[in-house]
Design brief:
With 529 residues, the chain is of the alpha/beta class. 46% of the residues lie in helices and 13% in strands. The chain has 4 domains: 189 residues, Rossmann fold; 85 residues, no CATH class; 50 residues, no CATH class; 76 residues, Arc Repressor Mutant, subunit A. The chain is built from 20 helices and 14 strands. The strands form 5 sheets. The chain has a 5-stranded parallel β-sheet. Strands 5-6-9 form a 3-stranded antiparallel β-sheet, with no helix packed on it. Helix 13 packs across helix 15. The longest helix has 19 residues. The chain binds one RNA strand of 77 nucleotides through strand 7, helix 7, helix 8, helix 13 and helix 17.
RNA sequence: GGGUUCGUAGCUCAGCCAGGUAGAGUACCGGACUUUUAAUCCGGCUGUCCGGGGUCCGAAUCCCCGCGAACCCGCCA
C-alpha cells in the first residue's frame, strides 16, 4: 500500500458514517453545536429484536459524534399516534373493533399499560434500557397534541398540490393528487384514515374532512359519514409518513436517521419535502436490511419463536444483542435464537483481542476489532477481562445436568480445568446457557421397550447403585452386567442413556452416574421396570 | 414495472461495508481418555469464493454485465 490507510475514529462503519455526517454538515455550513439523531419506534406490534436496531445504531452514531468531540442527543420518537391497521399475529381478535384507531387510544389487551401503544413502546424502551441505551423519549401523541409540528403542517398543506404531484412522480402513488396529506381523527368514530381531508383553510389553520372510509390491505374500513373541521394546531390528527418525517426533522432539527429498506420510498419523498418545501437540508441517512425470522422456523407459531429482546436476554447477554447490531449494518438477513452461541463466543473473542490475549496479523483488523468491542460496550469498556466459558460447551453440560445445575456444571468446569473457581459471571453464563439448553434442546421422551433379560440387567444395576457402598469401577460393572446376560453392551448403554437422559447418547456413564447421584439413578431405573 | 440483499467446504454459514496467505461449526477419518457409545482434547481431509469482464502490485472483498434465489415497494402507515 502506497499511502498509509487513514483510520477514522475507532475504525468501524459507525465512525465512518459519523465522519461523513460531519463532513456534510460542514459543507452546508450548518451549526454543529448540538447534533440530534433520531430513531423511530413502531408502536403497532410486538417489537422484534430488529426494531431495537434502529435506535441502537442511531445511538452508536451519537457515541461516535461525541467521540469526535461534538455534543449529541438521541430522540426516540414513538409512532404511537399511528392507527392500528391489522391485528398482529398472536393478539386477540377482539382488537378488531379498534382497527383504524390510534394505538394510543386502544386499551392494552394485556391489561398492564394505559394503552395498546404504550404497551408496545414500553417493551421496546425496556429493551433499550436493558442494553444501556440512553435516549430522549418523544411520543407522537404529545407531538401533535402540543402542536409541535403546526408550522410544518401548515407549510405542507399550503404546498399540497406540488407535493401530491411530486409523490405521484417519485413513487407512483396517486392519491395525494386528490386528498390532502393530513389524516384527521374523525370526531365521531375516533378513527384515522377513514376521514379524507378535502380543504385547508390556511388563515384559520383548519381542515375540512369527511369520514368516507378507506381500504387497508384487502379490507375495507367503513367510514361513519361524519363531516367535520379539525384544528391542525391542537386537534388530534397526523401527517402521513410520506411527509411526516420531514416535518419531524425540521421541527426537532434532526441530522441523522437510519431507515429500513421497507420505507425507502417514504424516505426519498421526505428528503425532497424537507429540502424543497421546508427548506431544511435532509438528515444524513443509512439504510439497513430488515431482520427476518429464520426461514424454516416461521412455521412454528409458538410464541417462544418471536425474537424479542426480552426473549433473547433469557439466553444471551445484552452485549450479544449489541454485537449483533453493531458488527455490521448491511446484509443482515435472518436472525434467530440459534445465533446466540456464536455471538456470545464472538464477543469473548473481541474481548481477548481488546485485552491483547489474541494477536491478529492484520493491524487494521486489530484496530477495528477493538473499536467494535468498544462500541458494544457503548464506548466505556471494562478495565479488566471477565471470566468466560465457551457457550456451546456450557450448553452441552447444561443438557446433561438439569438439576442442581449451577454447582454440578461448575464442578465439571473446574475438573476440566476450564475455570479455577466459581464466580458470579460464570453462574450467570450457566443460567443463560441452561435456559438455552432447556428451551431448544428439549429431550424427546422415548418409549422404551425392554426384553426380560434387559429388565433383569437393569434391576441388577439398580440394586448395585442403591447399595450403601460406592461401586469401585462403575463403568466396568455396567459393561460386565450386560456381558454376563448376553446383551450387547452398546444396546445396554443406549437404553441407559434413554432412561437417564432421554437421549441416544451421553457422557461416559460411570463417572456421570456418580455425578448426578447413583441413588437418584437407581430410582429412575426402577421406574422403568 | 422499480429497488435491495444474497450466492464461499458435503451441509449451515462467517469473512466483503476501510482490498493483503480462504475460515468456523458440523459431517467424515485417525489418535488420547489401559473395554463399546458421548463429551472434551489433539491431528487430518474438504474449495471453479455463481459465471464473465474491469480497476489494482494484489480482488471472495471495489466497479460493470449476466445467471440464480429471497425479500421490499408499486394499498397503507
Amino acid at each position: 500500500m502506497e499511502e498509509e490507510q487513514q483510520i477514522i475514529g475507532k475504525g468501524t462503519w459507525i465512525d465512518k458514517l459519523a465522519f461523513e455526517l460531519l463532513e456534510r454538515e460542514k459543507s452546508i455550513g450548518r451549526d454543529t453545536k448540538l447534533i440530534r439523531v433520531e430513531s423511530g419506534l413502531g408502536a403497532s406490534g410486538i417489537p422484534h429484536i430488529g426494531s431495537l436496531g434502529d435506535a441502537v445504531r442511531a445511538y452508536g452514531v451519537k457515541l461516535a459524534l461525541e467521540n469526535f468531540g461534538y455534543k449529541s442527543e438521541l430522540i426516540a420518537y414513538s409512532d404511537d399516534l399511528d392507527g392500528l391497521r391489522k391485528i398482529p399475529e398472536g393478539l386477540p381478535d377482539s382488537l378488531k373493533e379498534h382497527i383504524g384507531k390510534p394505538v394510543s387510544f386502544i386499551p392494552d389487551p394485556f391489561g398492564c399499560h394505559d394503552s395498546y401503544g404504550l404497551h408496545m413502546s414500553s417493551l421496546l424502551l425496556d429493551g433499550l434500557d436493558k442494553l444501556g441505551i440512553k435516549y430522549k423519549f418523544q411520543r407522537g401523541v404529545d407531538t401533535y397534541k402540543n402542536g409541535l409540528l403546526k408550522e410544518q403542517i401548515h407549510m405542507i398543506l399550503t404546498n399540497s398540490k406540488k407535493i401530491g404531484k411530486k409523490i405521484a412522480e417519485m413513487v407512483g402513488q396517486e392519491k395525494y393528487q386528490e386528498a390532502l396529506p393530513y389524516f384527521p381523527l374523525c370526531a365521531n368514530c375516533g378513527r384515522l384514515y377513514t376521514a379524507i381531508s378535502y380543504e385547508y383553510l390556511p388563515d384559520e389553520r383548519k381542515i375540512k374532512y369527511k369520514c368516507v372510509g378507506t381500504t387497508i390491505g384487502s379490507k375495507t374500513l367503513e367510514g361513519c359519514g361524519h363531516e367535520g373541521i379539525a384544528d391542525i394546531t391542537k386537534d388530534i390528527g397526523k401527517l402521513p409518513w410520506k411527509v411526516e418525517f420531514a416535518a419531524r426533522w425540521h421541527a426537532f432539527d434532526i441530522r441523522f436517521e437510519a431507515y429500513g429498506k421497507d420505507i425507502m420510498d417514504s424516505v426519498k419523498v421526505n428528503d425532497w419535502v424537507a429540502e424543497e418545501i421546508l427548506k431544511f437540508p435532509a438528515p444524513t441517512h443509512v439504510k439497513y436490511e430488515m431482520f427476518l425470522d429464520k426461514g424454516g422456523k416461521k412455521i412454528s407459531k409458538s410464541l417462544g419463536n418471536v425474537v424479542t429482546s426480552q426473549a433473547w436476554l433469557r439466553y444471551g447477554t445484552p452485549k450479544s444483542i449489541l454485537l449483533l447490531l453493531y458488527k455490521r449494518i448491511t446484509g443482515t438477513r435472518e436472525v434467530g435464537f440459534d445465533d446466540i452461541p456464536a455471538l456470545m463466543d464472538e464477543y469473548n473473542e473481541l474481548e481477548n483481542i481488546y485485552f491483547g490475549k489474541i494477536k491478529l496479523e492484520n493491524e487494521n483488523k486489530t484496530i477495528r476489532s477493538k473499536g467494535l468491542y468498544e462500541y458494544v460496550n457503548l464506548l466505556t469498556p471494562p478495565k479488566s477481562q471477565r471470566p468466560y466459558v465457551n457457550y456451546r460447551l456450557l450448553v452441552q453440560l447444561c443438557k446433561i445436568f438439569r438439576e442442581d445445575r449451577i454447582p454440578l456444571v461448575t464442578k465439571k468446569l473446574i475438573e476440566y480445568g476450564t475455570i479455577k473457581e466459581s464466580s458470579p459471571e460464570i453462574e450467570e453464563l450457566i443460567t443463560l446457557a441452561g435456559n438455552y439448553a432447556d428451551d431448544f434442546d428439549k429431550p424427546t421422551k422415548v418409549e422404551i421397550q425392554v426384553e426380560d433379560k434387559v429388565k433383569n440387567a437393569l434391576s441388577e444395576l439398580a440394586s448395585l447403585l442403591s447399595s450403601e457402598q460406592e461401586p469401585e469401577d462403575l463403568q466396568n460393572s455396567i459393561y460386565q452386567i450386560a456381558k454376563n446376560r448376553d446383551i450387547q453392551p452398546k444396546d445396554f448403554f443406549k437404553i441407559l442413556y434413554q432412561i437417564i437422559l432421554a437421549a441416544e447418547r451421553g457422557p461416559k456413564l460411570g463417572p456421570f452416574i456418580l455425578d448426578i447421584g447413583r441413588k437418584k439413578v437407581a430410582l429412575l431405573i426402577s421406574e422403568h421396570l
